[in-house]
Amino acid sequence: MKFYDQLINKKTQSINLSPPSLLALGFLSFIIIGTLLLKLPFAHEGNVSWLEALFTATSAVTITGLSVVNIGEAYTTFGQLIIMLLIQCGGLGFMTFAILAALSLSTKLGLKQQVMAQETIGQTSLARASFTVKAVLLYSLFFEGIGTFILTFTWLQYYDFSDALFYAAFYSISAFNNGGFSLFPDSLMSFSGQYAVTLTISMLYIIGGIGFVVLMDIKRAHKWKKLSTNSKLILSTIAGLNLFAFIMIWCLEANNPLTLAPMSIGDQALNAWFHATVPRSSGFNSIDVASMSDPATLVTMLLMFIGGGSLSTAGGIKVGTFIIVVLSVITFLRRADEVTVFKHSIPATVTYKALAVISITAMLIFIGFFTLLILEPNKRFLDLLFEAVSAACTVGLSRGITSELQPASLYMLMILMFAGRLGPLTLAYLIATPKKSRLSHPNAEIQVG
Q1: pTM: predicted TM-score of the whole model, two decimal places
Q2: pLDDT at 284
């Protein structure tokens, strides 16, 4: 018996991984399991290669939405259910499920579990971690349920009840988790004039991209004055970005005969709103992205890079990161002593963290884009850059070249999607060993700018 206990302890110690490593292995496990399930004979129609199954599983778990096949035609209902489950697991996050399982088996969180909870949901106490995880699950089911109800009722005029319900559930889960997967070959272009469909899906991915901590704070406070500084900053920044993007997309595409020009004023506003908000991390499209003008495409890439809120289903550098850097630049230009927002000071460490996130993400995109340029010499510069940004920021929008890329390029995109889902800081913690020095060095005068 003692020998058995010692053996178990040795095995436990041998898999004593850091939280970032465990998070990476968790997502990797979901991808492998998803790939195997999608390759089952009754999961797909015709011949789906291992690479296509792997790419689909990776895109679903990383809630990106890029695809090399039309999943509405390539996969059976069972396969589509697997994709829907992978999107849900990827959206809520492996660690959320892991912490929930740990909470059900333990009465308290150990030091390592506290670190995991801190990196995943921003809480370290048992009560707060348990409350946050349960809130994440309940909010997800609540909003996905509302979306399913509205979309089912709307699609009953086109499909029978079972198909309408299935489509509604799939799109609600895909939208709220910012997955961007579509069962229709043209994504949502066939419904560009359907207000109920377009607005419901846009509200789902916007709410999913706000962040669960902010949603919990809204439920707690009820009033703007009682919201935390973080919630006020995130909500006001998202509102400002959405308004800016809406105006820009509408102005830039209003005269484009391939996108908004043929539409009525109301439909132009609807689709301009949809494409102003969708790049924040959801890969749906109601107009042809490849036909958008270059300026509108550049604005779309900027929005993809920024992404949504922290602890949300969105990708990108996150809204908080973006606005902290903007405020830091404004503070420097005004020669102020500290970065302030809503009468609160922002610590310098937060600014350093924001700069690190932006730098790592930009470096990741550059490496991926540079690799794609070498592997795909016949593809357009802008198309490849757009693909790299979309993959690294887990958005899923494409200018129609994903299925045309060679296998090596698809593997590069999978690496970008996986790294983007882990997050730049988690990726840095995974590959770098933190070192602290007790030495204090003299200041150096370095010329900058």
Answers
A1: 0.88
A2: 92
